[in-house]
């Protein structure tokens, strides 16, 4: 596997050469094609839509001929996903016919999930269950089926850096992670470095491939140093190293394979920076320094020394793919918030209300026909009805009568979402933050009975940040609120904008958002992150007017020690309620927010 | 009036056929002692009331439950009864047994462990009109659902927190009464449905409703191992299993057999395990000290401690048993204080230290 080494020089040479992201993606897809069973899939982050089709084609080319590749919409309904009654065939044949669904159709091939960031936890859970079992177990529409579904997953995550990640139930089962940024036009035209032949040969080699004993320990040490918990990432790293060795035509896993595996599986999952090598402070800057005996060991026959040294080298490789921003202040919580996903919000489906059964009735006035229930209602009477008919009618169609019609009972649920927008600027921020955190947690404690959600945006310094995506999980809220930093300027306009966007998104999902601002209204940072009180104020007022135009319910709590006209002005422009509460505590904030919603 | 009352569900056959390879052996699971103990306790005494395993994904929760299924001792069942009634304790209300005559024969069967997959529809869970018979034969017959299959066994729900609300409500009703009542499509059927509920999930994906939480007897927290050696061992065993499932299962068959015999002995011994007044008082004081809601905590802790003593071959319940099982029996029953960061396990530890010293 010399590709990893060749990559650096190649990308420096000319812009016609594939970018790092592209060659990594191409390698990851080849590794997946070699060992789809263990590696599960590739999580492609920041995927551009032009690139995704090309990557899907790459995978298709590497899979055995005729292997199915199925696109899975992020909002796929259960009957399409898991299978169910094939009504047309059932009616035609006069006996129940089962339709096996997308997941089972992909058996032996791959599932492509585009817009993975919009996947709901429910959908993720269903895909995850199929990945774990290699089969789809479904209990639906009169059928209990277990159908083989061994597939690999290509998940295109088009969420931006501020968006939360797809549900962890899905991403934690996708072994390889590729950030797809910096793609060039040349990338899309560049041919795959591997062919189906390479992959087939590598598959054959895989079973007999040797994995030196210290490999696993090196990977385990590296994972630990990167703060990666759980056993799955280790299994992925080991499998990726083995697939890389097999693809390179080796008989045993070598150091290069480990380095590649660490870069594609461990690095992107890092939640903390690995401690610098004890004996060499410059290890971070000069990768070569950490690989003293690498010159003859590279591409060798798995001649690896002390697992600790090996672990150091693995770590070094993983550093190349550490998530951007890991070095920033508060980055650990941002990453973990992202890894926890936006599942709380995504939990609401795009459908307005979910079916909770069916009732007799006619499909009129917007009521949706429940086909299966209707058929069921009609089914037992078919013989009787045929007999009642003229004897010369010998067709076997199902006779459905008006009294058989069943319509879906939908449970419409507009979930309340309270968005806290908290001013974390200045010295008094810490105090307010603590109260805001407390209020969020109190609301959550009630929310999980009512199934309402809470979100929190904090603003300070140059901009606003979604600290807590809509959720009703206490565990996640605590984790993401812990260590919320304070201090810096007041980018109020950015905060109002971010809150408006979040509220709009919630409304599109059918939720009922309400906003609670905790601020003193002293805007002094403009939207572009620069200082200047006058412009910052003007922009904040403009943003407030926009919020009002969208018709969102808002409340401004003035937290300055002596209430100022500024916060009142903002609330007037927002059309919001204004409450001067210089020393509000968590309990009263929670109470006020609850009445606001 | 039913033309043909009950059929053996096709799904049961399908599920049996699909599992081509043996499950990962119970005894080969690295660590996770609390979860393993809780599952064994539920296997010894169904009245403890089910197990909820929450925590890290990929830490082998599903693996453990499926492993338990392979480990459970066989049970006697009325031959031909769809609900697998116990021949020793015939159920006079069982509609299936009613069709079998006065002296039905008895057969040995595996204790059922039934999966309730996400996306299941209500008709499959509670049972419904048998569509095939209705369509092809024009007969009206009841096809029992998952609840019927789970009778006298286990009902397993992975990702229980993602389960649809209306299914949760339904399960709660049946779990409380031990009887499934179906009134739909002109059918009127009631049949026994006594099962041990096993759930697993990750609280980060949404909290469980308190009513459902309370339904589980024991709640175990599952963590992925921290130590390098343990992690490596997990990966190695996984790999060995993936390469040769049958050989791997065979290698652990003896260990699994030992555990199975322990469960069998514990079941026989259970009624003879003494629970003296001092132990009773310890249990009561512990529940008051931690502030566990309701009587259910006390009952569960008593039963679980007794089952644990039986598993360990003890003649009487001692403080040691109570101490060991206090956290799983009580941690999900504590009144929640959202501002208190202290985990419920830590609160129980403190209470145990206060009461038991």
Q: Give the helix level of chain A as a range of percent.
A: 40-55%
Question: Which regions of chain A are unreliable across 5 or more consecutive residues at pLDDT < 50?
Answer: 1-15, 277-304, 325-352
Order of helices and strands of chain B: HHEHEEEHEHEHEHEEEHEHHHHHH
Largest sheet of chain B: 5 strands, parallel
Examine the secondary-structure arrangement and name the CATH architecture of the largest domain in chain B.
3-Layer(aba) Sandwich
- Biggest sheet of chain A: strands side by side, in what order? 14-13-12-15-16-17
Based on CA atoms alone, the radius of gyration of chain B comes out at: 21 Å
Strand content of chain B: 5-15%
Query: By CATH's scheme, which homologous superfamily of the largest domain in chain A applies?
Result: P-loop containing nucleotide triphosphate hydrolases
**CATH-defined topology of the largest domain in chain A:** Rossmann fold
Tell me the total number of β-strands of chain B.
11
Helix/strand-derived category of chain B reads: alpha/beta
Average pLDDT confidence of chain B is 84
The CATH architecture of the largest domain in chain A is: 3-Layer(aba) Sandwich
- What is the domain total for the residues of chain A? 3
Q: Could you tell me the strand content of chain A as a percent range?
A: 15-25%
Low-confidence stretches of chain B: 1-18
Q: Give the tally of structural domains of chain B.
A: 2
Instruction: Estimate percent helicity of chain B.
Output: 40-55%
Could you tell me the number of beta strands of chain A? 17
Spatial sequence of strands, sheet with the most strands of chain B: 4-7-10-1-11
């Amino acid at each position: 596997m010399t590709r990893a080494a060749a990559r650096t020089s190649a990308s420096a040479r000319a812009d016609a050469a594939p970018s790092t992201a592209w060659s990594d993606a191409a390698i990851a897809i080849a590794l997946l094609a070699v060992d789809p069973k263990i590696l599960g899939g590739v999580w492609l982050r920041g995927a551009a839509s032009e690139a995704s089709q090309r990557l899907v084609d790459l995978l298709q080319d590497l899979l055995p001929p005729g292997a199915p590749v199925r696109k899975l919409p992020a909002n796929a309904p259960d009957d399409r996903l898991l299978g169910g009654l094939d009504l047309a065939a059932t009616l035609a044949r006069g006996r129940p016919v089962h339709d096996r669904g997308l997941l089972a159709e992909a058996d032996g091939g791959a599932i492509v999930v585009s817009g993975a960031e919009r996947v709901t936890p429910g959908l993720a859970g269903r895909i995850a269950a199929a990945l774990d079992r290699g089969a789809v177990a479904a209990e639906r529409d009169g059928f209990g089926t277990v159908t083989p579904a061994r597939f690999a997953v290509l998940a295109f995550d088009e969420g931006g850096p501020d968006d939360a990640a797809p549900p962890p139930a899905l991403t934690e089962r996708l072994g390889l992670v590729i950030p797809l940024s910096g793609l060039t036009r040349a990338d899309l035209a560049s041919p795959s470095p591997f062919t189906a032949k390479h992959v087939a040969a590598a598959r054959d080699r895989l079973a007999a491939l040797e994995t030196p004993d210290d490999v696993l320990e090196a990977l385990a040490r590296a994972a630990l140093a990167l703060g990666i918990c759980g056993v799955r990432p280790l299994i992925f790293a080991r499998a990726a190293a083995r697939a890389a060795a097999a693809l390179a035509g080796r008989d045993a896993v070598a150091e290069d394979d480990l380095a590649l595996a660490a870069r594609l599986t461990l690095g992107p999952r890092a939640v903390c920076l690995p401690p610098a090598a004890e004996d060499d402070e410059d290890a971070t800057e000069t990768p070569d320094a950490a690989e003293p005996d690498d010159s003859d060991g590279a591409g060798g026959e798995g001649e690896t020394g002390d697992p600790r040294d090996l672990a150091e080298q693995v770590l070094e490789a993983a550093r190349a793919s550490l998530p951007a921003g890991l070095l920033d202040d508060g980055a650990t919580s941002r990453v973990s918030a992202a890894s926890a996903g936006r599942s709380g919000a995504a939990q609401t489906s795009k459908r307005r209300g979910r079916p909770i059964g069916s009732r007799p009735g006619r499909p009129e006035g917007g009521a949706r026909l429940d086909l299966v229930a209707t058929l069921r209602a009609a089914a037992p009477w078919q013989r009787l009805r045929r007999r009642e008919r003229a004897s010369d009618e010998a067709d076997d169609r199902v006779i459905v009568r008006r009294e058989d019609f069943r319509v879906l009972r939908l449970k419409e649920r507009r979930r309340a979402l309270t968005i806290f927008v908290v001013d974390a600027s200045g010295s008094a921020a810490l105090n307010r933050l603590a109260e805001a955190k407390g209020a969020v947690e109190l609301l959550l404690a009630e929310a999980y009975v009512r199934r309402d959600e809470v979100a929190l945006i904090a603003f300070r310094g140059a901009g606003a940040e979604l600290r807590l995506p809509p959720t009703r999980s206490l565990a996640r809220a605590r984790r993401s609120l812990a260590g919320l930093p304070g201090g810096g300027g007041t980018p109020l306009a950015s905060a109002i904008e971010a809150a408006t966007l979040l509220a709009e998104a919630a409304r599109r999902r059918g939720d009922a958002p309400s906003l609670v601002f905790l601020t003193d209204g002293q805007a002094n940072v403009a939207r572009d992150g620069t200082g200047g009180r006058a412009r910052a104020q003007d922009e904040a007022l403009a943003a407030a007017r926009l919020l009002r135009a969208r018709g969102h319910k808002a409340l401004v709590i003035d937290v300055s020690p002596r209430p100022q006209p500024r916060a009142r002005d903002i609330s007037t422009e927002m059309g919001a309620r204004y409450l001067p509460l210089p020393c509000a505590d968590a309990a009263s904030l929670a109470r006020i927010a609850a009445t606001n919603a | 009036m039913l033309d043909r009352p009950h059929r053996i569900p096709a799904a049961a056959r399908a599920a049996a056929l699909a599992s081509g390879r043996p499950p990962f052996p119970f005894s080969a699971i690295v660590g996770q002692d609390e979860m393993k103990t809780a599952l064994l306790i539920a296997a010894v005494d169904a009245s403890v009331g089910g197990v909820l395993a929450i925590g890290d994904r990929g830490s082998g929760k599903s693996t453990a439950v499926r492993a338990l299924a392979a480990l459970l001792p066989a049970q006697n069942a009325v031959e031909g009864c769809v609900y697998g009634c116990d021949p020793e304790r015939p159920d006079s209300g069982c509609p299936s047994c009613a069709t079998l005559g006065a002296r039905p024969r008895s057969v040995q069967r595996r204790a059922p462990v039934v999966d309730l997959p996400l996306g299941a529809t209500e008709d499959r869970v509670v049972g419904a009109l048998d569509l095939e018979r209705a369509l092809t034969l024009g007969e009206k017959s009841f096809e029992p659902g998952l609840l019927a299959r789970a009778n006298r066994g286990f009902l397993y729900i992975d990702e229980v927190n993602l389960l649809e609300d209306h299914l949760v409500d339904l399960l709660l009703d049946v779990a409380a009464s031990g009887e499934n009542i179906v009134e739909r499509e002109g059918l009127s059927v009631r049949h026994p449905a006594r099962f041990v509920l096993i759930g697993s999930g990750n609280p980060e994906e949404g909290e469980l409703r308190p009513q459902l939480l309370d339904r589980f007897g024991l709640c175990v927290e599952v963590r992925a191992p921290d130590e390098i050696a343990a992690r490596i061992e997990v990966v190695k065993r996984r790999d060995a299993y993936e390469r040769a499932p049958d050989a791997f299962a065979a290698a652990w068959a003896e260990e699994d057999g030992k555990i199975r015999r322990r469960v069998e002995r514990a079941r026989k011994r259970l009624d003879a395990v003494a629970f003296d007044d001092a132990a009773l008082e310890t249990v009561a004081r512990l529940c008051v000290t931690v502030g566990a809601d309701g009587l259910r905590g006390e009952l569960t802790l008593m039963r679980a401690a007794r089952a644990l003593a039986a598993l360990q071959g003890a003649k009487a319940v001692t403080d040691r048993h109570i101490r060991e099982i206090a956290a799983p029996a009580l941690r999900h029953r504590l009144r929640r204080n959202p501002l208190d960061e202290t985990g419920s396990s830590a609160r129980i530890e403190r209470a145990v230290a206060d009461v038991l010293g």
